[in-house]
Amino acid sequence: MIDCHVHTRLCRHASGTPLEYVAAAEAVGVEVLAFTDHLPLLDGSETGYAMRWRELPDYVADVEQLRRRAASPEVLLGIEADWTPGGEAMLREALARHPFDVVLGSVHFIDGWAFDDPDLVSRYEEWDIDGLWMRYFNELADAARSGLFDAIAHPDLIKKFRFLPSFDPSALYEAAARACAEAGVAIEVNTAGLRKPCAELYPSQRFLEICRAHGVRCSVGSDAHSPEEVGYGWDAAREALLAAGYDSVVFFRQRAAVESGIA
Ligand code: ZN
Ligand code: FE
Ligand code: FE
Ligand code: ZN
Hints:
Elements (H helix, E strand, L loop, with lengths): L1 E5 L11 H11 L3 E7 L17 H13 L5 E9 L5 H9 L5 E5 L2 E2 L2 E2 L14 H17 L5 E2 L17 H14 L2 E5 L14 H9 L4 E4 L12 H10 L4 E6 L2 E6 L2
Parallel strand pairs: 1-2, 2-3, 3-4, 4-7, 7-8, 8-9
Antiparallel strand pairs: 5-6, 10-11
Bound molecules: zinc ion (2 copies) and fe (iii) ion (2 copies).
């Protein structure tokens, strides 16, 4: 079992210390655990979405300390970074300052709106949902092509609150999968969707099949925001991957993909 997406209390909307996550991972049999807490926002705003810039060095040091322990699980140092159009150079520079094993790229914002925040869900009313889906998948493809990220987290997060398009989104999945394949970026099978209103994995089975057809590799993460969620939904993720034709997944060590069998 691997879990390549967990948060800590540093981001202000999760609970648990890195040590508590490691203990939880050990207890449920997670063999590879990547910490991927939220990188501070590039504009420096101090929100409830991410840690502060001044906290990043301590986050890195805490995880690095656990990483060096020769115990199970293997601990990896990662970060979840927001795709911010126009902020590529700044993000590249910030990421280069620390020895991350893995960088997850996430589209959480459209024009500054955190569309996955339950407190801001009323703002879907301002959008034509078909247009919003097209916009989201355009951002996702741009994120993949930026070369900044190893994997794209929760690749169809836009479905979270079930504001679904009137058309079959397969063409959007195709374009996203093609962008990931061409850029050599993995996508993440993220089990948090199972506990959200959409009540299914990110990505959908159809999207996962299209990724498989394009040769896109997959990572797996629980997106745990508390230690009890570590390893959550692994069986569901594995079954979805097998059904889509995958027999292995990848995790990242020093930004290089390592294959891990699931069959
Ligand atoms: Zn979070
Ligand atoms: Fe995220
Ligand atoms: Fe996350
Ligand atoms: Zn997340």
